[in-house]
From TrEMBL:
Record-given protein name: Double-GTPase 2 domain-containing protein
Domain of life from the UniProt record: Bacteria
Record Pfam families: DO-GTPase2
Domain Double-GTPase, chain residue ranges per copy: 10-186
Length: 314
């Protein structure tokens, strides 16, 4: 049985949706996946498009400062990137479809965003940490996100995953206190959204800060973009040293969740009973546990809500 799961990037313009996705190219080659005897393949077109975006980021490190939009340009239309998962020399049994939307749609065409989110198993919400920590953002975007999620999570029958991904976090997440400050600030600023999410028994919620660039520090804010909002400008601390940190972890957590979900789906019903008896997909539960391990132990990540509760008790 082949299953496809959709993951939608949900955030206003400039928070780092496309930048995060460009890190998938490297993430799928990391050790955490080579320890698992499955094959992970980005489709060729996705790999090419995302590698190009990544290259633009790398190029920004050749100068002393990085202004807003020096790296990746604003997304004009939907981008879709698929990651196939297969047993060696077999057809894929799982496909993850990542959807990158133009952030402007959140205000201009929320129904179109909703249509994607409603069909998504996981929602990734990148948050520009530099702006967050300096109280730059208003909260009308949060309301738009909340409205979309209230609609999407109404009468859920299957678990969902929401990951907050603080991006542009280089200045803050190098230390334990800095990370804690980011977590606290998200809890404060996103209180209405968090309040809603933690009440959903089928929604798993985590915060996983990343640095997609590294080698940079926040300098100041200047107006930029089509709507002339204040945007962070970074200084390059080590030229030409592309040094991302933790960018693989949203994917690790996603896979842990998806494997568990896939396992549960396959374990239902009469056929599921027999599959279980013969341990048909039991290995996926083990992979899920293995991949979920860092989130129970590492202080850089925070799980807000476990979700899944009702289903696991069945
Ligand atoms: N220093 C630093 N800059 C980042 C990071 N992530 C994103 N940026 C910068 O932020 C800018 C905006 O990021 P995008 O990924 O284009 O944002 P988006 O959410 O896709 O925006 P739209 O496509 O307009 O909706 C890019 O030009 C990046 O250079 C990060 O982790 N660190
Ligand atoms: Mg984009």
């Amino acid at each position: 049985m082949h299953s496809t799961f959709t993951i939608t990037m949900l955030a206003p313009s400039g928070e780092g949706k496309t930048t995060y996705l460009s890190s998938l190219v490297d993430a799928v080659q990391k050790d955490f996946l080579t320890h698992i005897p499955l094959e992970f393949n980005l489709d060729a077109e996705a790999e090419q498009a995302l590698t190009q975006e990544k290259q633009k980021l790398v190029t920004t490190l050749s100068k002393g400062t990085i202004g807003y939009r020096d790296g990746i340009q604003s997304t004009a239309d939907v981008g879709e990137y698929t990651l196939d998962i297969a047993h060696p020399s077999d057809d894929p049994f799982l496909t993850l479809r990542f959807v990158d939307l133009p952030g402007e749609w959140l205000q201009e065409d929320p129904d179109r965003v909703s249509a994607y989110v409603d069909r998504s198993t996981a929602i990734f919400i990148p948050v520009d940490t530099a702006s967050l920590m300096n109280d730059i953002r208003g909260n009308h975007d949060q309301q738009a996100i909340l409205d979309i999620l209230i609609q999407a999570f109404d009468a859920l029958t299957e678990p969902r995953l929401v990951i907050f991904i603080p991006t542009k976090a280089e200045t803050y997440v190098g230390t334990r206190e800095g990370t804690q400050q980011v977590m606290d600030k998200i809890a404060e600023v996103y209180a209405p959204l968090m309040h809603f999410l933690t009440q959903q028994s089928l929604v798993r919620v985590a915060i996983i800060p990343i640095e997609t660039l590294g080698s940079s520090q926040l300098m100041y804010f200047t107006r930029g973009g089509s709507n002339q909002l204040l945007q962070p400008v970074f200084s390059v601390t080590e030229r030409h040293r592309f040094n991302p940190r933790n960018t693989e972890y949203p994917l690790v957590y996603l896979l842990s969740f998806i494997f568990e979900l896939y396992y549960l789906r396959r374990s239902y019903g009469v056929m599921g009973f027999f599959r279980n008896l013969f341990r048909g997909v039991h290995y996926l539960k083990n992979y899920s546990r293995q991949l979920g391990q860092p989130f129970a132990t590492l202080p850089e990540f925070k799980v807000i809500n476990e979700g899944f509760m009702q289903i696991q008790k069945r």
